Structures are given as C-alpha cells and as structure tokens.
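Support request, please re-run this one:
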Amino acid sequence: MNMRAIGSSADRKMPMLFFLAFEDLIAAQAVQACRRVGRLLRRFDIFRGCHRVVKTLFTTSPRGALLAETHFANPSNLNRLRPAEERSASRYTLSARRKYGENMKYFTFAAGLFTASMTLAQTPILTIYAPDYFASEWGPGPAIEAAFEESCSCDLQFKTGDVMSRIILEGERTEADAVIGLNTDITKKARETGLFAAHGQDNAQLTLPIEWSDEIFLPFNYGHTAFIYNTEKVANPPASFDALVNSGTDLSLVIQDPRSSISGLALVLWVKAVYGEQAEAVWQKLAPKILTVTKGWSESYGLFSDGEADMVLSYTTSPAYHIVSENDLTKKAAIFPEGHYFMVELAAKIASTDVPDLADAFLAFIMTDQFQNIIPEGNWSLPAALPKSQWPQAFQDLPLPEKVLFYSEEEAANLRKETIEEWRRALSK
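Re-run finished. Output below.
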C-alpha cells in the first residue's frame, strides 16, 4: 500500500477540522442570536422557541445538534466561542453604538428562527399511544395521521409500544391524550386504572355483529379468529372445529403463545367458548398437530407463508390481503359452524389530557367514513362503523362466520388464567 498516495494523518484531518470549525461557528451564531433577541424583547418564550428551531436545523449534523443543545443548556459555554476581546473584562466597556450594531445583526439573523418557532409553538400536539403495527408504515397510522391533521390544524403524534403496560406504568403522569389498539380481553384491567374518560360518541352508529354500549372504550375495527390455509396445499380443509380436532397428525398448525399474543389469547378463549369443560382434552388432541408456538402473530404467519405449515391461526380477513395486494386467491379461512371468537379493537380518551377538545375530536373522527374507509386495507380488518355495502369488494366477498362467540371483559378476565393453564398443561405432556 502506497501511504504517500493516501497522505498523512494530519493531511486527512485538515478538511474535517475545517468543517467542524465552521459548524461550531454556525451553531454559536444561532445560539447567540436567540439569546440576544430574547434579552432585547424580554421574552423567555422567544428563546425557548428559537431553541427548538436551532435543534431542528442541526438534526442533519450530530455535532451541530450537540453544540446547540450544549450551549442552550449551559450559557457559559457560549463564552468560549466569542471573540477574545468580548470574553475579556473590557467587553462591558464597548460603546453603545457597537452593541447596537451587533444586536441588530443578531436580531436580523434570528428573525426567521423566531417566526418558525412561533409557528411550532402555536401548533397543538395530540399524543396517542398505539401498538407498533398500527403506526408503522404498513399500518393505518400514517394515513389516519395525515387525514386528521388536515381537519384539526394540529400535530398528531403516535407513540408506539405495549400500550396497556405503558399506561399502567405511567399512571396519571402519562403523556398520552388518547390510546388506540386495546381489546376487550384486557379492558377490565384498563378500566380499573381509572385513567380513562367517557368517549362521548353515539354507539348506535356502530355496525358490529354484537350490541355495544360501553361509554369508555370506543370500537374502531373488529375481526374473527380463524385458521388460514393454502388451497394448493390443503385440498380438503376441516369443515368444522371438531373435524380439525379429530383430523390426522399429518395436518400441521402454527399458533401463537396466549401469554404474549392477543391472537394466541383469543384462541384459548375460542376453544373454551366452544368446548367448555372439555377444553383441556381438546388441546391434548390438538397438541400433536402443532408444529410450533410463536411469540407473536407475524412469526407464525411468516412460517405459514413460507410453506412450513398447513394452517396458521390468524383472522377471517387475512385472505383479503393476499387478494388485494398479491392477486393471490389461494389463501382461505376455514369457517366453522361452531362459531368463531370475536375480537374488537378499541380507542379511549385519557381523563387527564391537556387537550381534551382535541382528544374528543379524534374520537369523533374515528366514527367518520374517512377514518373507517382507511381500516380495511390499512389494518386488514373490518371497520366498526361502516356498513358492509361500503366495504371494499374483496372484503364484501369474504366468507364470514354466521355464529359469533364473545366473552365480556369480566368473563374474559376471569377465564384468562384458567384457559392459559389448560393450554400449557396439554402442550407440556
């Protein structure tokens, strides 16, 4: 290797040092501008608004962002970047004219920053806690965010993760104004926190297959658990739950863990709703057919999509995705006459929100056709407040169960531990 061709270490550092020094200068100028304008007008809000803008301007430069943050956090740091004569004790003897000229220079520089900062400060923020899938680029969140912001002149911000766990942990200190993505199998725990307020919407507008009267939790979509199969791989799918239970061991299933997955929990409740006291015996028959149990839905469905299993626990709406997105008609849901477990996803308002009117507006938005029309092909589920005649054609054509099985939140909470234990004992033998 020709080291001379590359150049010395010092040579290579010179351009970088130049740009870092330039970056230091720009960051310092921005910070100085905000401070001087704030002092001139005696408004801390101006300084704070400039702070937000400066940080935004330097997001493309990690060093610049760090510099800006450091100088705002510690004003004395700024002195190190001022000219030497300004750092000296004699700086206080500068003429009024010079000070005036410098202040006007900084005022001009900061005018744009101030204007932008005031715009940011005047935009109300609505914070909504949501599951990861909801706010992801392939979920309904981005379209919902854009649509709502057009009507509210606000900044809707989704914060993702385990919604229920986060709410319980934060309690009354929560940043959330509203939450979305809860379901009836955990709403008892949510209700008992006392953190939620009435949604204020007309439940008569809902188009659920069950009656809904809850004043706290507002449905925005629903679905039914089902086993999905590939017609090219399974020519004669089970026509009933009994047929699935008593089928040969050559039929392989992948399911989700009820301790970590909402769909997995729905499955054990489904088995309980169909078979009652015989649920554990049914699990013992199903156990040899279960290829694997995954932590979440996506892992299971990935195995099925890769051809590793004959059937996967999912939802009656899953085939719609393949029809619409892939023009694939080979994925079907096995519809059982015993009935299918019904699941509904919910939104709710946080009682302590600082923007109650904005939270109310979002819940009202959920009930609009604009929101509901995003749900089918955004969340691949059924809209909770839209008649079937307005669903996309692929959803209208889906075979759906005639019988719906559903536990109230009290029943689901009381059965949760029992059904999971029945499942665990059967699969551990």
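Residues 223-343+394-428 form a domain with the D-Maltodextrin-Binding Protein; domain 2 fold (CATH 3.40.190.10). The CA atoms of residues 258 and 265 lie 4 Å apart.
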